Amino acid sequence: MPISKTKSSFYRRLYIAHLIDSGITTVPGILEYTGMPRRTAQDTIKSLADLDITCTFIQTKGERNRSGHYEISDWGAINKQWIVDNLTEIKSVLDYP
Length: 97
Description:
97 residues; alpha+beta
């Protein structure tokens, strides 16, 4: 049975938030780890706020370009332990290694 776009979008957001919280905190790092397109990663990070996940870009001091990293400071209503417990299923639905 095909996975709905709603479910895959939700799982992608949870997975990206989990990666950021686990130390993969840059778009290039996420791209390297998952193989997802840059635009998908960027759009997914921006959409975390729709789930009340607070994700902030921390710019590297002294840098004029957009170098820095992301941090999750609040998970809202999301139970991040559920993500850890269901990571295999999430990655399977998303077809990520």
